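Protein in question quoted in full.
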Amino acid sequence: MYREEYYKFSHEFLPNSLFKFGDVIIKRVLEDREEFVESLKESWKNIELEKSFIRSDPPSFEIDNLNINKTKSLIIIKVPEAKEEREALYIGIGFNKENDIRYFTYEIGKGLHYENVYFLCEWTRELKHINHGMYSNNNIENFIDEIKSLL
């Protein structure tokens, strides 16, 4: 069942916000993760829906920050409730000391035999969508390793 707010959050709201206000958002995440999670939940409630008559409760977002090297970091947002096709299990926000931002998702898809597959996708500053490949597992370490190789 297509859940519009899951799609809009990870494909429209968050990348738009990051590319407009990225330095402020990153600073907030790094200063207080719990407060940032609460602001994500509030934003979720305000996403304008076109088709859905029933809105899902906001996910219980989980956030981690990883230092990749001296100049690059990666914020991981886990969306444990994501389970349908086109929903993002993980969101990755790569950034460096100059706050150059890259935005990634690990989206659920369906394979030839209707098995779950996962797509590593990226949005550019111009909100162009790039597909970096299909994977057979939803292991977060795989997601992190693939992003590290792209940063």
Residues 9 and 23 are 19 Å apart (CA to CA). The first helix runs from residue 4 to 31. The longest strand covers residues 101-110. Residues 4-150 form one domain.
